[in-house]
Design a protein that fits this description.
Blueprint: H1 11-24, H2 26-30, H3 33-52, H4 56-79, H5 85-98, H6 101-104, H7 112-130
Helix pairs in contact: 1-4, 3-4
Length: about 130
C-alpha cells in the first residue's frame, strides 16, 4: 500500500484523505454532487437494511459510508466555493442547540409530545426567518 497505517484515525484524518483522493484519483476528481447522489441513496438503504437485521458491525461500516458521502458532497461544494464540511458541522451544531432549548436553555417540557411540538415551532420559525 505504501502508506503506514495509523493505530486510530480521526475526523481530521478523514478530511485530509478525502482532499487527497479528490486531488489524485481520476474517478473521484471528476465526480459532481449529481453524479454521486445515487451512492448516498444506496448507502442509506444499506444502513436501513443492516439496522433492521440488527447487524451492528455492518451498521458501523454503513454509517461510515454515509459519512463518506456527506464529506464527498461537502468537498465538492468546497471546491466550488460554496461551503466546507466545517460549515456543515457549524450549521448543524447551531441548529441542534436552537432546537433543544430544554437541554441548552431554561425551557421545561412535561413530555416527549411537548418536545416535538416545540421542535416543529422552532423549525417553522427558522423557515420564516429564511424568507
Amino acid at each position: 500500500m505504501g502508506v503506514k497505517m495509523k493505530k486510530k484515525y480521526g475526523f481530521n484524518d478523514l478530511v485530509k484523505i478525502m482532499e487527497k483522493i479528490r486531488k489524485n484519483c481520476p474517478w473521484d476528481k471528476k465526480q459532481t454532487n449529481e453524479s454521486i447522489l445515487k451512492y448516498l441513496k444506496e448507502e442509506v438503504s444499506e444502513f436501513i437494511k443492516e439496522l433492521k437485521n440488527k447487524n451492528y458491525e455492518d451498521m458501523k461500516e454503513e454509517l461510515g459510508d454515509i459519512l463518506w458521502q456527506v464529506l464527498f458532497h461537502s468537498q465538492i461544494l468546497k471546491e466550488n466555493g460554496m461551503f466546507s464540511i466545517e460549515d456543515v458541522i457549524d450549521n448543524l451544531c447551531r441548529k441542534m442547540i436552537r432546537r433543544h432549548p430544554h437541554v441548552f436553555g431554561n425551557k421545561k417540557f412535561k413530555n416527549e409530545k411537548d418536545v416535538i411540538e416545540n421542535w416543529e415551532k422552532i423549525k417553522l420559525q427558522e423557515r420564516k426567518n429564511k424568507n
